[in-house]
Amino acid sequence: MSRQVREHRRLNRRRWLQRVGIGAFGLPWLGSHAVAANESQSSTKPIRSCIFVFLYGGPSHLDTFDLKPDAPVEIRGEFKPVATSAPGFHICEHLPHLAKVMHKVAVVRSLHHTNRLHDSAGTELYTGRQGPKGDREEFSPIPQFFPCHGAVLHKLRSLTLPARLHHAVLPWLFHNVIDVPCQGGGFLGSAFDPFPIIGDPKTRSFRADSLQRPAELSLSRIGGRRRLLTQLDHTVSSAAKPARELSDLYDRAYGLLESKRLRDALQIDREPLSMRQKYGLDETDGSRGGTNGSEHAYGRNLRGQSLLLARRLVEAGIGFVNVNDFRQQGQNWDSHADNFNQHKKHLLPPIDRALAALIEDLDQRGLLESTLVIAAGEFGRTPQINKSAGRDHWPDCYSILLAGGGIRGGTVYGASDRHGMYPDRDPVTPADLAATIYQRFGISPRTEIHDTTGRPYRISDGRPLTSLFA
């Protein structure tokens, strides 16, 4: 970004902060002067769970939650804004289900970072930090260094909730474009990787292979082995760190094998058919999109069902659930060509239905206040429409959706400029998002964890967006 652009944005921000008023479309705007307040002043009760929906590929912010109807046609595109259940709040016309629940939703319209490639952008979104090699070239795999949100929460919350399953991912493991994880334990180690849950597109069912045991290995035999292992452990000093860590791992493994609650949660066919249909059950068209029709069918069969399973996992006590939408190189949100048809026909309808259903379902079950729902891509799309009727990667400013967890519904935080290119006020970084997640779990973002060399890191260098919450 040029020095002139940075100075222009700084002056715009200063001028705006001199005013107190109403934000875009007449909505109450939550400004940085409120965010600067001490994080401990929030009276909102800490959340118990977070469902983070990863819209891989980067949805177009200009065609979802930050439309620019007054911009030139080469920027504003084909879609029109429509009114929602929140007075003055407008979103895309192709999000009719979400339009009905926007009074329970907040949108951040000023998220930004510097990564223009999928791998590094996804890594910063999920860790709150850019990877050690920066905005690196794709197709050059490197291990994940910084731990993701779920891994950090697992590390810290397991101190007081040692037997609990803290972090799960579905309906497949996510490794960016190639084998470059962004949702793992990083320097905390593989013990803090997420619990993997795999979706079957043909049966619209889910399984966890780590819960499977040979038929001849009964729970009583497992119990006997556990007792023997405990006796052997007594020969090692209980103060030895490796012994304690192994003991913790064994306890979690045995707990999972014996967990009826988790097994029951995976039985999604126990849900009434009407509930499964509410989330989206019948989207089975695999005849279009991308280079592999089966990839398209895979996601359309599982998009809604994955969010339904996420609700069941929250009910089962899992603290952080990653839902990956979509499989890397299938019908994802990376709309370099035919952006409007891709969004209108394939991408927006299933996520619109499923996200709205999740918000309503959590609310009706009394879980919305204790569960933070986040839907975000690794970046947005270029304001300028390209020659292929598509939009390209744009991390300089984009939108994310938040609901539940004490969110002040029907609000907008931050704003983009008139063409959706850069934040016009209150820019937000992935570090701020991470700080917000940790703060809502009742954990100070200043808390330190250590890498394998003992070097300390704050879990986030950002500021929690406390003004977003009641």
Briefly say what this structure is:
The protein is an alpha/beta fold. The chain contains 13 helices and 18 strands.
What would your notes on this structure say?
The protein has 470 residues and is an alpha/beta fold. It has one domain: Alkaline Phosphatase, subunit A. Helix content is 32%, strand content 15%. The protein contains 13 helices and 18 strands. It has helices at 3-17, 32-35, 73-76, 96-99, 118-127, 149-157, 219-233, 241-257, 260-266, 273-279, 293-315, 339-364, 430-440, and strands spanning 49-55, 81-83, 90-92, 105-111, 167-170, 195-196, 198-200, 205-207, 320-325, 371-376, 380-381, 393-394, 398-404, 411-413, 415-416, 423-425, 448-450, 456-458. The protein has an eight-stranded mixed β-sheet, sandwiched between helices. Helix 5 runs parallel beside helix 13 and helix 7 packs antiparallel against helix 8 (241-257). The radius of gyration is 22 Å and the shape is globular. The protein starts with a helix and ends in a 12-residue tail after the last strand.
